[in-house]
Amino acid sequence: MTAAAFPRKLDASGGSSRATAALWGLVGLGGALYAGVTAALFADAAGPARWTAVLAGGALLGAGWWLAPRTDPRDGLIAVAVGAVLFRLLLLPAPGGSTDVYRYLWDGRVQAAGINPYAHAPTDPALVGLRDRTVWPRINHRDDRTIYPPAAQATFRAAHAIGLRTPTGFTAVVIAADLAAIGLLVRLVRRAGRDPRLAVVYAWHPLALLGFAHAAHLESFVVLAVLAAALAWTAGRLEQVRCWDWRRR
Fold it and tell me: Which is nearest to 178 in space by CA: 226, 234, 243?
């Protein structure tokens, strides 16, 4: 190494260390932000809390996207992963998410009773014995039979079978799928020859955080499936893709 190159190497290393420290600082700021959002949701300030999460979370994401590629490769990726887990766990207990989760819990309960969820709406007298004071009153569109396809129904049944029968419990399943998707995204980005730290764009995205860790929407499973298929495709394991129409008999 020449004398001229040595200072440049030190400068690059120092810049990487500063960027890594700054990214960890963003993890701390994000933790404070989403803890505050959860506290506001408990205080019944859903509107301001969600807008704050979207706007401030978007700014946090932008800063993370700029910093991540400038960090130490290993430590930067760890910071991205820790932030992804921390932000989701902080939103997990927050109230006021989508009422869709109550339909998920209901459909799981109906299946556990040996009843076809496609055959009866929640208001059907045949299901009176399954009603309670927590889930049933909060089901949206109670006069309509379920719209969720078989794969979703299998998820509802599995969650019920392992005892995840509350909104928080089912949301934990959604978060697990979302975190698994982030892991697959890191692998896919790396396989494409790009910087895996750029997975921060999804891992810290406020819409993904609110949509999955707060509202428990099922699209987290779709994201996971798409990324798994993309990984299989890039590995040459999918020679042909066929579409299965589950509605056909």
Answer: 226
DSSP for 214-226, please give it.
IT--THHHHHHHH
Burial class (CB in 10 A: 0-12, 13-18, 19+), 69: middle
Crossing angle of helices 167-191 and 150-161, in 10° steps, is 120
Amino acid at 48: P
The DSSP symbol for 135 reads S
| Dist CA 210 CA 108 (whole Å) | 23
The three-class DSSP label of residue 98 is coil
Token match 């299998």: residue?
154
Which tokens in the block code for residue 30? Answer: 């994000």
What pLDDT digit, counting tens, does each position of 182-229 carry?
999 999 999 999 999 999 999 999 999 999 999 999 999 999 999 999
pLDDT digits (tens, 9 = 90+) for 6-50: 344 434 556 788 999 999 999 999 999 999 999 999 988 878 888
**pLDDT (0 to 100) of residue 31:** 97
User: Could you tell me if residue 121 is left (phi over 0), alpha (psi between -120 and 50 degrees) or otherwise beta?
Assistant: beta
DSSP 195: -
Cβ proximity of 213 and 175 under 8 Å: yes
User: Tokens 């990726």 identify what position?
Assistant: 77
Angle at 86 between CA 30 and CA 70, to 5 degrees: 60
Give the span between the Cα atoms of 228 and 212, in whole angstroms. 18
